[in-house]
Amino acid sequence: GAVVSQHPSWVICKSGTSVKIECRSLDFQATTMFWYRQFPKQSLMLMATSNEGSKATYEQGVEKDKFLINHASLTLSTLTVTSAHPEDSSFYICSARRQGSYNEQFFGPGTRLTVL
Amino acid sequence: AQTVTQSQPEMSVQEAETVTLSCTYDTSENNYYLFWYKQPPSRQMILVIRQEAYKQQNATENRFSVNFQKAAKSFSLKISDSQLGDTAMYFCAFMKPYGGSQGNLIFGKGTKLSVKP
After folding, report:
1. B101 pLDDT band (50/70/90 cuts)?
2. Which residues of A35-52 are buried (b: 16+ CB within 10 A; e: fewer)?
3. Which residue of A has its CA nearest to B40?
4. B99, B5 in Cβ contact below 8 A?
5. What count of Cα atoms within 13 Å lies in the side-chain half-sphere of residue A93?
6. B109 touches A: beta carbon within 8 Å
7. pLDDT tens profile B9-63
8. Distance from CA of A114 to the nearest CA of B (A)
9. How far apart are CA A96 and CA A49, in angstroms?
């Protein structure tokens, strides 16, 4: 149990286009989902926290108009990178917190984004 | 603000031996959670072990155990009988208590562990 999927696992896009990444909790309901960014050989940096049915909370320095987050259901959160540029190329990881369980997060396998 | 420091960027250990990864953190909270995560080359984050600050007993999970020193704000991970499959990046992470935040994790920079045959 407690499986989180991400789709796509990798994507290549042209500069200026938008890319949507999906994060799904497959066998549990997730009231909160987190989006992280990880550069090569670096740690995970929290980008935003999304709660089902409400606006996401963005970390300082993360542009909310560039990284659109939607958490429309208890099993799905999406991250849309709008007008992507090469500097947005990175590994994006989501995690989900099971409803009723505060201190436990389950991670998706990540999405590698390459912007040409 | 909370910070997590891992002072060992890379470590190596011979198969079957024991290795200890260091982690220190800074917080003014009295209760919180600490974690060690493993990220193998597949990049899937895997929870290794979890410790609740109000519990004095060190957490253990099979070959993995922690040395939690609350006063020193230290949380080291000991891996016994190291196996080739333990080769990975290891991240120490901190989480505020319920009500203190939305429950996001604050990660250290990681330690790259290589287990040599």
Report:
1. low
2. bbbbeeeebbbbbbbbbb
3. A109
4. no
5. 23
6. yes
7. 999 999 999 999 999 999 998 889 999 999 999 999 999 999 999 998 999 999 9
8. 16
9. 10
